[in-house]
Design brief:
Order of helices and strands: HEEHEHEHEHEE
CATH topology: endopeptidase fold (from Nostoc punctiforme)
Number of strands: 7
Strand content: 15-25%
Radius of gyration: 15 Å
Structural class: alpha+beta
Length: 170
Amino acid sequence: MVSKTIKAFTRTPFNHVSITTDKELSEMFSFSRFNKYRPLPAGFKNESIHTGVYGLFSSIPCEIYSFEVTDSQLKRYNDLITHFKTKTQLYSYNLLGLLTVPLGIPLKRRTRFVCSQFVAYMLTYSGIAKFNKDISLITPDDFRYLKNATLLYSGDMKQYTYSNISQITL
């Protein structure tokens, strides 16, 4: 229900984004719901295409992008993910962001993210990608237009199989 409402409002093909270095997509990170049946509570989460909300659907349209990364960028990424994993209690879902992002109102909240803000934060502070607007205004659709993002797969996430992905992917 929440996903369909967001999609109807944004009129973009995708309304969620996660980040991973796991080629099989069994460990993706994002800010999303903790319970697959209720939108709240939500926060930093380890997602898998086989469980949680993803596990409810037999077909999920997706696009998977990759970025070439240096050793130092990968180290910064891994350090940041470790920080979020070990300090999960410090972070929560940015409910206000559900209103401010579509309205184009920048709202910086150090410990609160929606999915797109979190992934943009990870890519920015790892030195992997740069955005032409404030991180607090990034939407899932914005990742499709990053100059250094390479589209690896477009189709049903449930049909995806690893094929030579060796970079950070969305």
